[in-house]
User: Fold this.
Amino acid sequence: MGLDTFLHNLHFDIDKASPADWEVDWDDAPLPYKIYRGLPVFSLSLEVPLTLEEWEEPEQPNLRKISHFLWYVFGLTQFSQSAFPTEDHAPELMQSYRRFVPSGGGLYPNELYVYLKTEDFPVGVYHYDVAHHRLVLLREGNFDSYIAKALGNRCDVSACFGTVFVSTMFWKNFYKYNNFAYRLQGLDAGVLIGQLLEVAKRFGFASGVYFQYLDRAINHLLGLTEKEESVYAVIPLTVEPTSWFTNGSGRDELVSAAELCRELKAIQTNYYIQSQRIKTFPMLTKMNEASMLESTQSFRQIKAREKLNVESQVVTLPHMKRLSYDLASVCQKRFSPDMDFIFGNVSQSKLSTLLQEATSAYLYRNDLDEPHKKLESRVSLYGCLNNVEGIPDGAYQYDSADHALRQADLGDHRLNLQYGMSAGNVNLFQVPLCFHVAGDKDHFISELGYRGYRIQQMEAGMLVQRLLLVASALKMGGHPLLGFEAKLSDEIYKMNNQGKTSLIQIPIGPYRPRPWLQGSLQS
Assistant:
């Protein structure tokens, strides 16, 4: 199967993207986290703060602060156990460990690595061991110059106390979803990056997201085997003033991944993931190889595309005061309702706050935007609204620049959306707000090559996380869904005229408490 055909099927005809006879080997499932063996470990503080309401003043982080930051970004936060009936009437128990970020099937295909320069740890590159809330030392030493070269000398790494690497382990959700995992992996990485950026703000850390870097050089630094795992984003962190995404002394210096790799010896590591029979995933490997950047000459910025607004009725939303909330409490209360949604009235002010906060806080530093240009998000929000105060039921496009809703098609679209779902786990008739994150139909492949697809998925995931956090702050639940018919929602919003397509569906609304026993891993 060609890569273009694969991406088309992945989005519009998923049954053709994966083999029809795929069977999940539940008994050989991988762990949702990677455990290294035989390497130096550094325990992190377990006394995490119970509130993250105020933004902290920028200061060089210590062991305590790094510990709390990593835990709120990706640490284990909840243990859950579900019971399923079987033919012999003995219930089958399924246990899972949850984090503050959602993940498709609760499988968490991403891993976090950090390059740290603080007084409490040896300077070096670490893996965040989620299972034990500790850091595992992979390489000791100062790698400022190496990382800066891998980023094309577009970041003053020496001014940063740390750099985070978000990777994807392909098998961790391929074992269940087969080739569909490729779409999930980008979205999951984006949700994680979105959480990281929000937590970083509360800790007084400045950050920027690099989607373009020399893949093989970064993977070589971390000791990753590229047919198993690859880095998707690099995020430097600093508390000092620094320049972002501009060339430094190496402005005209072209660096290749091959020559940079020769600067460091390869490292051999031993890790445990539990699965004994890891199958191959050739399409994911081909997509990853086709997405890699071999030279800094390949780095690109995306010129803002002309905004196409179809002539339509406009509902101007009221501008609201910025929402202030305790991020820790919002993370703890975030919930993905299934049949728990309850249909209720949503005030126009609540809808306005949700859209305003999700999109304004979504803007972030990255290496794709042209310098000195007004930031325009490459992903946008559409929504089917029902029972919203002062707004006719219908499908709308949200114009964040004007803070207004542009009418696409009036009427109740819930029946069509329900028919378009592949699973009946959410009753959309009980949902007042059904949003779709949309992006360009060509996935920016003309500018970024096949890397454009996974970048678009990551940016969609980042916006999804913003929506979920704000919805939680407004005492509503949101459930990200990929089991929906993109062609159908595209037709509802008349997206084809704009060259857009729906990337993910997020029903949002009030919900009833679920009758279950749950326990937090906080004490």
Notes: The radius of gyration is 22 Å.
